What does this fold into?
Amino acid sequence: MTPSDEQAHGVSQNRALLPLMVVATLALGWILVPFYGAIMWGAIIALLFMPVHRRLLARYKWQRTPTALLTMALILVVLILPFALLMAALAQEVSHFYTLVQSGEVNPTRYFRDVFNALPDWVGALLDRFGLVNFSALQRRVSAALAQGSQFLATQALGIGQLTVEFITSLFISLYLAFFLLRDGESLARTLRNAVPLAPEHKRELISKFTTVIRATVKGNLLVAVIQGALGGLAFWVLGVGGALLWAVLMAFLSLLPAIGAGLVWLPVALYFFVTGGIWQGIALCAWGVLVIGLVDNLLRPILVGKDTRMPDYVVMITTLGGMVVFGINGFVIGPAIAAMFMAVWHIYATTRADTGA
It folds into this structure.
């Protein structure tokens, strides 16, 4: 075989290898889809705690396996145990609330009726014209919606609080993967860098952008959510609103939505205080929500998320909302990460074209 024939044979082998690689990658992705959330959070946990792992490795000069095990023990104490305790307490509170709705002690229609009675006459007439004050129909709809919603929350919270098989499986996969990524992450990253057919400076830019966005999004959004939820729950507890823990967790969850977030919970409660005669409670809750809870969002989120990711606030907000619509709760990480990679890839493309004069 001549050198030209060998070269042609090598080219044909490379052409056949590419489709096989694509098919194998898609097949692997297909079988991992059911666990994509657990795999994603395992990678995120390893990424967040990698600096701790490196400090322990440099300080104690241990082998990678004992250091990774010590890091995993810290993760269990700092992250997993508090989360499990919170979910167990939440499960009890949600179950209690569901029982109150089922027994009729919590009657949403009564609250709507109190609000309607406090409205000006012209507002009541306008609502009546559009058929929006049929309290019998409203009671059926709201009661059914609250019953379904509270039952769903109770099921989910109880599932976590009582450690169901699905939750244990996902948690095991996340922690198992996090351990190996902590132990072997650097060698795996080196292998991936060598496999990506890009210039070294472009690979460094993409990897740096991706890791920065993931860390900033998770740490920033979760920290803001925890602070806002805790502040909102504290205000509800002081004002005597029932189920303060439940509302605190709900506010923390909604705080993942930039700009609107916790206001979807505390603002209706403040309005209810106003229309039912609790003027000072309504004023206090509005002041606390705007000046304290809102300040946390407006002050900390741009610093923790926007500054590190170097993305405009509106891009972070839109991609967070879009990501949560498409991917659910995991979308608050996936959305900004996709946006960051989009911007980085287009920046590399524009720079390359400018350098080549195309």
User: Anything to note?
Assistant: The chain has two domains: 32-195, 201-358. The chain has 13 helices and no strands. Residues 201-358 form one domain. The CA atoms of residues 90 and 246 lie 6 Å apart.
